């Protein structure tokens, strides 16, 4: 006698598919419209953890951060109407940084849709722009298949899939017969680089006077190959901001990143190079960062990216690792050029100059002594969730990242409030690793409620707030870009340590140089989540965008004024290093 098929509620079937993709937790917030999914979560509590965040935006940001840190699908849920709208900002972060995220969004029951019902909005259109896949379930039977398809699409298109679930569907019994093929999902294969293009690239590099590598996150698996190319052709390495960490900061020929958060040496190289080997990199600011006459060899796995941000001499459609390895195998090792030697000397002097402030006792404190403590107290496999603001500048320049550590920020979308949800995700995904969040006083306030999430789940994270009483990143723009009176940027002094204590975390305040070591020692040793409020100088970081450093072509009075303002007496322009190299002094 044929056995009768077992039945399952569609919401349970949906979670079963998600689980089959290796997901064992999701981030979100309940609502009446999501009772079906919350019920299914309760049913699966032994295998699927619900991380109750305190704002749906935080849940979506955590999912985005986790997907960026792990490369795997991560899931956020929000209830109908306001819950759905709150998700949106975090999903945009995932979209911009190409993170595979699945958002389950509740909808009122089908019978109440489209008749101006309580909390009912037309959810489809609001997710149209953010999602690579955005569908509303129409039958209970196809919900598991829809979830499966949504996850496949998120992986394939490196973005956000949204599945909107009218409440009545989740509660409906369906046959428990859906089979996901998640375990057989394969990573795509990429083409081998064209050998003719590799030969051409090698010739161009050899003929160049000042070639450099500019790599992005697409080179994340290619650290040894980047070094091999750099050593063979004596090309300094410069990265995009989010590609920091692919090559360790202490690697001699890694000069750092370029762009506003970068240090001076990387920025100067961009304007001095005549050939860029552009690897896995889609930085939108590229047009502002490089000598316009420089030739470009571009490596990317995505043909849409080839030539997107600049003109390309040699396009190479291949994975960074394979293409760089092919290039590194070409010809004999070159001798260090003047450009290469000057680049390294510039980096070393810049680091020496920065390090000079690490013991500075000025109050309120400069960032350098705090980052020196972070470098000292961070484990070799620590994870950093970095917010948006001056903390990006300080992190890029002052944190010596090891390839064994991880970090994430809101890269292309640059949403404030990212730091804390990213730290929550880091601790959930890597419970054994030490986790820091680093935020400004503006960014921290935006998602500060997530301290409650850390407390609720005992997520031991060290949350550092840099309190400079201003929206510093924007203050600097108003002062240096537009030369306008400061408008709307001032923030009140806030006792974040007391706020943290009120939320059940441990709170510390650092005011003086002598506080630093004591507080970090105690924070690292503490049991649960910790907040460190650093009372930071109001002075803005050294600007590389409006830099007056070279009297050879810049107004001498302006150079003097700039050097005095940033205590930059020990810094030399890149042209001086080039001259030293030409004179055989380097
Ligand atoms: C959600 C959001 N709103 C506004 C901005 C614009 N913005 C970028 S950085 C910044 C200031 C950040 O201030 P704070 O967190 O105090 O850091 P600081 O730069 O002072 O260190 C602002 C307002 C943004 N990026 N994201
Ligand atoms: Mg601030």
UniProtKB/TrEMBL annotation:
Keyword terms, alphabetized: Oxidoreductase, Pyruvate, Thiamine pyrophosphate
PROSITE patterns to which the protein is assigned, alphabetical: TPP_ENZYMES
Domain Thiamine pyrophosphate enzyme central: 198-327
Ranges of residues in domain Thiamine pyrophosphate enzyme N-terminal TPP-binding: 9-122
InterPro entries, A to Z: DHS-like_NAD/FAD-binding_dom (IPR029035), POXB-like (IPR047211), Pyruvate_oxidase (IPR014092), THDP-binding (IPR029061), Thiamin_PyroP_enz_cen_dom (IPR012000), Thiamin_PyroP_enz_TPP-bd_dom (IPR012001), TPP-bd_CS (IPR000399), TPP_enzyme_TPP-bd (IPR011766)
GO molecular function: pyruvate oxidase activity
Thiamine pyrophosphate enzyme TPP-binding domain span: 387-534
SUPFAM superfamilies: DHS-like NAD/FAD-binding domain, Thiamin diphosphate-binding fold (THDP-binding)
EC code(s) of this entry: 1.2.3.3
Family, as annotated: Belongs to the TPP enzyme family.
Annotated PANTHER family: PYRUVATE DEHYDROGENASE [UBIQUINONE] (PTHR42981:SF2)
Name of protein: Pyruvate oxidase
Organism, scientific name: Loigolactobacillus binensis
Gene that encodes the chain: spxB
